[in-house]
Design goal:
The chain is an alpha/beta fold. It has 12 helices and 17 strands. It has helices at residues 12-23, 65-72, 99-106, 112-122, 132-157, 166-170, 195-202, 216-219, 234-237, 283-287, 314-329, 347-364, and strands spanning 5-8, 28-32, 43-45, 51-53, 60-62, 77-79, 84-88, 91-95, 187-191, 208-212, 227-230, 247-257, 268-270, 279-282, 294-302, 309-310, 333-335.
Length: 365
């Protein structure tokens, strides 16, 4: 079968590229091995009528007006500022660490300048900063590092923070004010009708054909596209010829509590030092739904399973670069997305990368 473009993967990357190319008059076939669109952002009503994120919480935030405006063509928004608490020594404390975190944890009454002086007195200066351990102890010292970061990182990645790039820790900043929002981006909101509905509108175009429940390797011979857009794992595309790229996976334990209206104070509570799971998210905080019960999800990181997070370590980066060199030699193929580019992208970064890739593809075909 002929088509201008075959797109592998119906998550953010594949869907954005598909819509951009279809709007430019190209015929597009988009496939996904799962039975649904929207990738890991897929949400659906559970059997109790509560909108839940099947693959864990997805909180949209961005400083990019271009990305926000683009997605706004396919959804209205519910303003939402995500807040997270961490269970530490019997208390629920704000994370990222801020002035209230430190004051409540240690029974202090510091102001902003006092907190800066406190951090200066407890920090363990590191230069250069190479690892996540370096990045944290350099700012807040060892006690806060052990209480908030070390255990969580060990669970999340199966590695010590000293074994991971500093960029991992940099995703959770440290603040000296009272700001308890998890993100500080200009735009913070949730798709009003959910992510799946947003994707459905994005892919609703006469130039786009959707095929679900099919694997690329099994149907690749059916098509002769002018261009291929691949958003899956780059090592899988090349039949793991250099070995498998390491990914961290997750197991999601969903639970409905029929007689509980509100399970926790905020959208997400982290458990750095207790339980096998890393966090619990309560979806009604995110969606604003009214319901007599509530639905939550616990996240258990694991080594095997669907690839969710590229593991940011030097040796993994070197292995990816070997695959990247092969990718650069592939004619008529664009690799885009978290798995294809082996990057720990946020959703808005994925959209930005997909918009950029779309322009390059249109220049080519």
């Amino acid at each position: 079968m002929k088509t201008d473009v075959l797109v592998v993967g119906a998550g953010f990357s594949g869907s954005v590229v598909s819509r951009q190319l279809a709007d430019s008059g190209k015929t597009v076939v988009i496939i996904d091995k799962r039975s649904h669109i929207a990738g890991n952002a897929y949400d659906t009503n559970d059997k109790h009528g509560i909108l839940v994120h099947t693959y864990g919480p997805h909180i949209f935030h961005t400083n990019s007006q271009e990305v926000f405006s683009y997605l706004s063509a396919f959804t209205k928004w519910r303003p939402y500022e995500h807040r997270v608490l961490a269970s530490i020594d019997g208390q629920l404390l704000p994370i990222p660490i801020n002035i209230d975190t430190v004051n409540r944890l240690y029974g202090l009454n510091l102001d902003e300048e006092g907190l800066k002086s406190y951090f200066e007195s407890v920090r363990d200066p590191r230069d250069p900063i190479k690892t996540s351990e370096d990045a944290i102890v350099n700012i807040v010292g060892w006690d806060l590092y052990k209480k908030f970061y070390k255990g969580y990182t060990n669970k999340q990645w199966g590695l010590d923070p000293s074994e991971l790039f500093a960029s991992v820790a940099a995703r959770v900043p440290v603040r000296t004010n009272h700001d308890d929002r998890y993100f500080t981006d200009t735009h913070q909101a949730m798709p009003l009708d959910g992510y799946t509905e947003m994707f459905s509108r994005m892919l609703d175009h006469p130039g786009i054909t959707i095929r679900l429940g099919v694997e690329y390797q099994k149907i690749r011979q059916e098509y002769s596209p002018k261009h291929l857009v691949y958003t899956g794992p780059i090592d899988e595309y090349f039949d793991f010829c250099f070995g498998k790229l390491p990914y961290r996976s997750l197991f999601f334990e969903h639970e409905h509590l029929p007689t509980v209206q509100k399970f926790q104070q905020v959208g997400t509570v982290n458990y750095p030092n207790e339980h096998e799971y890393t966090r619990i998210t309560e979806f009604k905080h995110l969606t604003g739904q009214e319901h007599s019960g509530t639905s939550i999800v616990r996240e258990y990181p694991k080594a095997e399973g669907d690839p969710y997070y590229p593991i940011p370590r030097p040796e993994n980066d070197e292995l990816f670069k070997r695959y990247q060199k092969l990718a650069e030699k592939e004619k008529g193929v664009t690799f885009v997305g978290r798995l294809a580019q082996y990057r720990y992208y946020n959703m808005d970064q994925v959209v930005g990368a997909a918009l950029s890739a779309s322009k390059s593809i249109l220049d080519e075909i």
